[in-house]
Amino acid sequence: MAEGANEVRASYAEFVADGAHYAFPSPSVRQVGPCPSVTPLPLARAGLQGLALHEGRAVPVYRFAGLLEGSQLPGGSPQDEAAVCVLVQQGQMSAGFLFQRAQGLVGLEPGEHLAPADAADQGSVRFAGIISREGQPPVLVVDLEKTFALLEEEGEQA
Amino acid sequence: MAFFSPDMEALLDIYQRESFEQLEELDGCLVDAEVQGGFTPSCVNAIFRVVHSMKSSAAMMGMADFSTCAHKLEDLFQLLRDDPQVAQGLQEQVSGALYAFSDYARSELERTSDDGYQPASAAAVLQVIEQAAAALGGEPADDDAAPTSADAGKQEAGPVGGRAAAPVVAEGAEAAKGQAAAGTSEATGAAAATDEPALATDAALAEPMPEAGEAAPCEEHVLHVYLTEDCRMENVRAFMVVRRAQEHCQQVASVPSDLEKEGVDQLIRTDGLLVCALTSNVDAVQEAIEALPYVQRVEREAAAAATEAASDEEAPGEFKAAEVSEADGSAKGEVSHASLAKFTTVSRAQVEKLRSITGELAVFGNALRHAVTSDDAELDLESLLVRQQRLLAELESATAALSLTPVRTVVSRFYRVVHEIARDEGKRVTFEVSGEDIEIDSGLLDAVSAPLIHLIRNAVDHGIEDAQQRVLSGKDPVGSVRLAVRSLNGMIEFRVSDDGAGVSDAQVLSHAQKAGLLDKPVEHYTHEEALDLLFRAGFSTNSEVSRYSGRGVGTDVVRDVAMELGGVASVESQEGRGSTFILAVPASMTMQSCVHLLVGRHTCLVPVRAIRRICLPEQAQAGLSVGGGAQWFTQLDQTMPVLDLFQLFGEQCAADETPLLTIVDGPNGAAALLTGQAVEQSMVVEQPLPALVAHRYASDLGISGCAVLANGLLGLVMNVGQLVQLLKRGGVQHG
């Protein structure tokens, strides 16, 4: 194999929720682990499970599927189907997202680009694009900046 | 390239600290002048002394423009010292010059910590100072006098060898003659343009060297003096060094400048002493200092480090101009307090206290180790726990004491806000402050400063009517704005009051209706609910956007800040009589004792300081009543609303659970909280809620933060003031 052939332009961590595949840019992923102890919040909005401790600080934990519009798994549903918590950070904001399982890493080769995913935005989640691979389910890449902005905006609404 | 050399970088912290303290003193003098209605002789002397020190130390650090400004200001106050009557009727100009300098100096000092710091031009400030000097009959103001970027282009190149851009000493007899011809004893800054001041331009540098027989011109030199390791009382030795240098120099300054200040000996021990000498024979000065006992060595700093520290009035010095950039354009009075918070003065007693606690903790650790390893059944673990809690409380108290700052340290900027807005709006306003000696956490003071400035600005701009209108209303033509600070039950309360027009409910509701901010029909709003609309984002009753307010921006931020701090913002107002805005925040920003109250799945942490009493329902039964569709509780002739936290949180009270009624006092009133059982009381360390959820929970559910519980889960820290506020504004159904 030629030198540098393994170089990837971008790397993403792939997870499964509600049977579909989603990914976060790898540099944003701080920790992947089992579901932490979550303290529920009163009158939590759809998808928001509560607060968990990460390195001594409270972070909000969302059921990823619960954030998606039309999801069959509303935020208030039990956590038993969510086996993995992905802690992501974007700027000063952190959040945990619960998924059914971790799929692995997926990368784009140099020259490859994310396919546009404008029409794929769902509920409170915004997507930066889609990774399509032959014989594999499409992977929707989460646009964390926009998603956090949306969650913050929703959080501010009385 | 870094502006400060490594030597100067090492002194930056102490330079900043000293300069910020001097700025505070300067601001204090301005407040005195405001209160006294003029500059008293002692005030003039104090300002002169402070500005002189700032000039010297800025020059020492190579901050030429800064030093030039201070020098000009020093000259201005020399005029006042010579003839105190000269400022009569001109206080505005003199104050304006001081304010301009204060702003510029604070901005520069704050920026010195920035990576890649380069001094900003002082052209605009110099112009203000010179105009004031001209008004006092000093040297004429010249619009072109201030250094400009064009000047900078003509002058010396940038920092040399990593050294700060330094003042360049003009050379040549012609330059000195120019000074004499100008009829002024100083030649720094950009003054006396008509007489070709001794600018270090190419032309000036091309002047002939002094002829034989003429005295060599004085030049500025920086000597770095290191004392021997066995030297004790370094500050005393440093004092001797400065004295010895004075024997050979026209003027001497040192960094650190205040050799009597606590901790200076340690600084000199590690970093040495910088002596800035204005002399024609630096070799003699160096030899004289080297001859002193305990002087290990004297190093001469690079020529570019020559500063104007000792230039004073006879010095034919001139600073080269730095690049021009307009002074900070932030709203007046809104200078940051952040850099002040960088430093904390710690007394020996406080250090001793911490040392004592550390010792006790070590002993306690031994006792704990013994308890863990021993099988002694007699051991009293309970007493160990009590001891640990006592030590923790002492440590918390001692640590908190380290950052206590009197409110007075930020009061000067409030005076300034009132002064400037009243002047610009053509209003006559007095400003009074009470409780300025109350000490609060510097971080807290920092956080509330901007909201208070906003409230004070609004009071002058919106609250106080113009003199004619006040007279027509039967009021004193001079309006009054007050800031009252008090400490009460672990809360710090700031009340900003004015005797102005007050708030018209009808006007507020009309504006709110137009802005689509009403949640119910206008006629259903009470007076309190109408006033509460003032805190809604985007609300403004001012039909005209003024320079200072009327954009509907800010008052909502005041409430946001209050809630972030676990406090509350509210307003009382009477139309025609005036308004009072109240900002109440917890005094402690770290630990607090809380009672853990269960509400369904949630553990609510209610600060003990806010709890008056916890009642069992059967005890409370006699006081409960229903009225207006809500439940009320009456105790000792005080009736308060009942807030059902189960209902607020959407939880159910278990059938076998006995609910409690907890009577709480917020800064804005009392309430009775209906909750589940109280499980314990403990000290908790509150942390803010994550940004993604904070706003909603703070504003709608009165949750200011969270804290880790013994079981590893999180408790929700309740903001009692906000809960009462929610009840008052009808944000929750109670009972």
Low-confidence stretches of chain A: 1-5, 70-80
Our count of helices of chain B gives 23
Multimer state: heterodimer
Strands side by side in the biggest sheet of chain B: 22-14-15-25-24-23
Biggest sheet of chain B, open or closed, and with what strands and sense? 6 strands, mixed
Compose a concise summary of this entry.
Chain A is mainly beta. Chain A is 11% helix and 41% strand.
Folded structure, characterized:
The complex is a heterodimer of chains A (158) and B (735). Chain A is mainly β and 158 residues long. Chain A contains two helices and ten strands, in the order βββββαβββββα. In chain A, the strands form two sheets. A five-stranded mixed sheet of chain A has the order 8-1-2-10-9. A five-stranded mixed sheet of chain A has the order 3-6-7-5-4. The longest helix of chain A is centred in the C-terminal third of the chain and has 13 residues, at 144-156. Chain B is α+β, with helices and mostly antiparallel strands. Chain B has 23 helices and 25 strands. Chain B has a six-stranded mixed sheet with strand order 22-14-15-25-24-23. In chain B, strand 20 and strand 21 (669-675) form a beta hairpin. In chain B, helix 9 (234-246) packs across helix 10 (264-271) and helix 15 packs antiparallel against helix 19. The longest helix of chain B has 31 residues, at 6-36. Residues 140-214, 303-341 and 543-553 of chain B have low confidence and may be disordered. The A-B interface holds A 37, 39-43, 48, 51, 53, 56-60, 92-95, 148, 151-152, 155-158 and B 599-602, 648-651, 687, 689-697, 699-701, 706, 708, 712-714, 716.
